[in-house]
Structures are given as structure tokens and as C-alpha cells.
Amino acid sequence: MTAPERRSERPAPRSTAPPALVVEGLTATYGPVTALREVSIPTEPGRVTAVLGANGAGKTTLLRTISGLVRPQAGQVRLGERDLTGAAPETVAGAGVAHVPEGRGVITELTVEENLRLGSLLGRRRASGRGGPARGWSLDDVLELFPAIAERRRRPADTLSGGERQMLVIGRALLTEPDVLLLDEPSLGLAPRVVTQIFAVLRDLTEQHALTVVLVEQNARSALEVADTGVVLALGRVVAVSEAAELAADQALRHAYLGF
Amino acid sequence: MQQFLDLTLSGLSQGAIYAAFALALVLIWRSTRVVNFAQGAMGMFTTYLALLAVDAGWSYWAALLLALGSGLLLGAFIERVVIRPVENGPELNPVIVTLGVFIALQALASLLFGAQYRSFPAPFGLTGLQAGSVNLAITPYGLFTIGAVLVTMIALVALFRFTDLGLRLRASAFNGEVSRLLGVPVGRMLTLGWALAAVVGSLSGLLIAGGELVWPAYMDPLIVYGFVAAVLGGLDSPAGAVIGGVAIGLALSYVSGYAGSEFAGLAALLILVAVLLVRPAGLFGRATVRKV
Ligand SMILES: Nc1ncnc2c1ncn2[C@@H]1O[C@H](COP(=O)(O)OP(=O)(O)OP(=O)(O)O)[C@@H](O)[C@H]1O
Ligand SMILES: [Mg+2]
């Protein structure tokens, strides 16, 4: 996406240790439907955890429960010292969890730049709350990272293509200066080449900024290529957890749950 | 020609008031998908508060500020206390609740302020201006009306377009869930949206009362014309509300002037039906289903 020599101009990696995300024993229901049963997932700053599984497995519900859109029946969500279990989404976002929802969450009535500015507003608040300068994602950094949207910054966001929208929401999430990035099916509807590009950027960002990334995907093969750890959900339960490479090599599991 | 000019001028000053009222409806519709039938009664109530202040010896301007300030609080209060609890139920509930507020406020006004006609002061003259030897139909008060609405519109546009708060307000109105994921306190934004709308509604109540009689139901015609203006503009579009308001003001003025004032209500209805037949989403509404 960006010429390599530009990389050094991006914000410097943070110096303090990032807070760890803990997701433990989450149970969530929609009326009579239990969508998650005691789900725990391993996460670590600087690493990508892929959450895989068939339609209806509970992947989206897991992310929505972490970000506060769904209240869990049991279990906990913590970020560093802070208990975020059952907290309001705006509180969780303020604590440093950026959730890019399924279907991408572009606010189509706003311009590209206004979408990004919303991210910056939270980022600035978080930076001042921490008492120090932010890691310093600026609008320009993001536009440099994704030149495709830079040209369209003054256009309404609903004029963007699917791939551009994905870049927009990832860029917007970065501007919030997150410690945790939750991505719900970012590859959906994108050409394989664009998926590869976006995953490559994601990989770089995760390492450079010690982000804790939870990547929900139907596209298990690509997700396991970019992830460090893999979790497989089926009917709301965790049925497998291991290193991404091991999951990808487990033929029986792949056939049973991942369809490749 | 002289008559046409006169009707245009008086249509503009009436239209400005319809525009303000329509704008108040649109601001609330856009953010909470509620048609606020209580808007007229809210504006009536705050105008009575201003009248009490004038009775107590306050200046017109201090009373105006009191009305706008109490409109702000009343809007916030109604959103928090009355609308919020029913918001997540069936879509029709909040609308029915606003009808309830409408009736309650009118009854309360009769109790507190009496049901008799009272005259409301105007800060400027109510006789036509003169250009050379020609009498114009525009009064100093009419000019003040247009100016007050214009200033309010410009302030709102500046707020929504150019400030961080305005961006948060718009984002909350368009997509609450995504806004919350971006740390925007959407609940507070919706309350503020109602409060701002109620200020504009109060302004319209005050302006239409100037130099006229007020009684608890004096806003009823304004509710009808303001509603037609809002629908004309598309309900979703603040600019549409303003243009719709001015258009209705002009149309009613011409109809009253050339055909007789008894035709004004009929004309409003015809305009509404005609526009909805040709453009169901209003002149400036988005017909598309919202994509998220
Ligand atoms: N709002 C809702 N109300 C009721 N049931 C729901 C709701 N959202 C999800 N469910 C149910 O919860 C279960 C998990 O859904 P979820 O959306 O988390 O699955 P998913 O793994 O993200 O699926 P997909 O891959 O299709 O996006 C499903 O059985 C679904 O039908
Ligand atoms: Mg899903």
C-alpha cells in the first residue's frame, strides 16, 4: 500500500507496556438463544488471534460482548487493570478497544474525512486522559497508509468501494489510539488481492504498535496466514485453540469446522 | 405588482417562522425518528413563560432569553424523562407519547396561565416600512423575524458543520451504534439534539406571538403549516425544512392575498398531497434505504 521508505514516518511504537486484554468464560444469550457458552480466548499485545467458525457460531456475538454492545450473562472482559465487563460501548471504546463491526460500520452520511475525524476525537481524548502524548496517529498518517482513500477524503463515504471502506474503518480505528483492535470479517466481499494487502498492513501494525488484535473471519485460510493464534467456535463453544500454524495443519479439524 | 411585492414580503416573514418550526421537527426526526407533536405546545408554554416575565417587568429581550433557555431545558427534560423510557419499544410509542405531552402541556397552560386571550408584545414596530413614498408590507418586526430565524439557522449550520460537537451530534443521529463504538456518548447527544430543537421551536412560538394574541392553542395553525413545511422538505433535511417553510409561507400568502384567507388551509393540504404524489420522500429527502 505504501512505499517502504515511508514507513519510518509513521508514529513510533509506544514505549510503555500495553495493557493485556482478558476475555474469560463469556456466556451471552439473545432471549432463549444462547449464543456464547463460557468462551475464553487467548490474546496478547503484538499478536493476532483469529476467531473462526461457521455462520451462526457466535463470532460476531463474541466481539459485540467484548465491546459492550451485548451484556454477558457470565464471564469477564478486562483490559489491564480495568474491568470492562458489561460496560457501555462508549466506555469500552474510551478504554482503548476499537471494534470494527460486521458490515464495516462506515457512517455513509458523513464524508470520508468526517468519519476519520470521529476516530481522532476519541484518540485525542484518550491521549489527554493518559497524560502523555498519543502514539500519535494523525489523519495524514492514515491517509498515507491508505492512499486510495486520501484522494476521496472530501467525498461522502458512501461513494467508496468495499475495499476502500475497509481501509477507512481500519484507519478510523487506528486514529482512536487503540490498544485492542476487534475486526469482524474484514475480508467479506473483497477481492483476494485487496484482502492480502489489508492483512499485510494489519500484520505490520500489530507488531509495530503492539496492538492486541482479534480477527473474526469466515475466510479461515487467509486468517490463519496472518494470525498467531487460532480459536474455533462452534455453536457458541470453543472447540479448538492453538497456534495458527497448527490449526491450519490439522486436516480433520479443518474439514470439520473450517471448510478448507 | 405592488400587491405581489407586499404578499411576497409578508410571505417571507411568515415563512421564516414556519421554517424555524419545521427545522425543530426535522432536528428531532433525524436523530430519534420521532415526529414531535408536542413541539407546538412546548413553544406555546415557553412563550407564556416569556409573557409572565414581561408581566413582571422584564424587558422583551430578557424574556426572549428566558423562553429560549427554558425551551432548552424543556426539550432535554422531555427527551430524558418521557421519550427515553419508551424508545426501545414499538416505533409508534414515542410518537403517541409526544401527543400526550402536547395535550398535557395545553391543559397545564390553561390551568397556570388561564385560557383567555392575552396580547404578546413585539420589540419593534408593526406598521409597514416606507420606501420613498411607497408603503411596503414589511414591518420592522417582520424584518426582525426574518433576521432572528436567519441568525439561528446560521448558528446551527456552523455548529453542525464546523465543530467537533456538531460532528458527534450528526454521527449519533445517523448511526448510533457505530458512534458509540467510537466513544461518542450517544445518549447525551440525543438529549442535546432535543434541547436544541426545542430552542428553535420556542423561537418560532415567540416570533409568531409577537404583536398578536396568545392563548393555549394559539400555536395550532403553526403546527399544521410547520409540519407541511417539514414534510415538503423531506423531514430528514434541515435545509429542506427551511426551504419548505419559506415556500409554504409564500404560497399561503399568495393564496390568501389573491383568493382569500379562507383558502390557506386548503392550499397547504393541496401542496402537501401534490408533493407527496410526485416525490414521496419530500423535495430534499433521501428515498434510499439507509446502508450501514
Ligand atoms: N440480535 C439477535 N437476536 C437473536 N439472536 C441472535 C441475534 N444475533 C445473533 N443471534 C443468534 O446468535 C447466534 C450467533 O450469532 P452470531 O451473529 O454471533 O454468529 P456469527 O458467528 O457471527 O455468524 P456469521 O458468520 O454468519 O456472521 C446465532 O444463532 C444467531 O442466530
Ligand atoms: Mg458474524
From TrEMBL, chain A:
Residues 21-260 form the ABC transporter domain. It holds the Pfam family ABC_tran. CDD domains: ABC_TM1139_LivF_branched. SMART domains: AAA. Keywords: Amino-acid transport, ATP-binding, Nucleotide-binding, Transport. The keyword Glycoprotein does not apply. The keyword Nucleotide-binding applies. One of its GO terms (biological process) is L-amino acid transport. One of its GO terms (molecular function) is ATP binding. Belongs to the ABC transporter superfamily. This is Branched-chain amino acid transport system ATP-binding protein.
Automatic annotation (TrEMBL), chain B:
It comes from Actinomycetospora cinnamomea. GO terms for biological process: amino acid transport. Its main location: membrane. Pfam families: BPD_transp_2 (PF02653). Keywords: Amino-acid transport, Cell membrane, Membrane, Transmembrane, Transmembrane helix, Transport. It is found in: Cell membrane. One of its GO terms (cellular component) is plasma membrane. InterPro entries: ABC_transp_permease, BCAA_transport_permease. Belongs to the binding-protein-dependent transport system permease family. LivHM subfamily. This is Amino acid/amide ABC transporter membrane protein 1 (HAAT family). The chain crosses the membrane at residues 12-29, 36-54, 60-83, 95-117, 137-160, 189-209, 215-232, 239-257, 263-284. PANTHER family: ABC TRANSPORTER PERMEASE PROTEIN (PTHR11795:SF451), BRANCHED-CHAIN AMINO ACID TRANSPORT SYSTEM PERMEASE PROTEIN LIVH (PTHR11795). It is a multi-pass membrane protein. One of its GO terms (molecular function) is transmembrane transporter activity. The keyword Transmembrane helix applies.
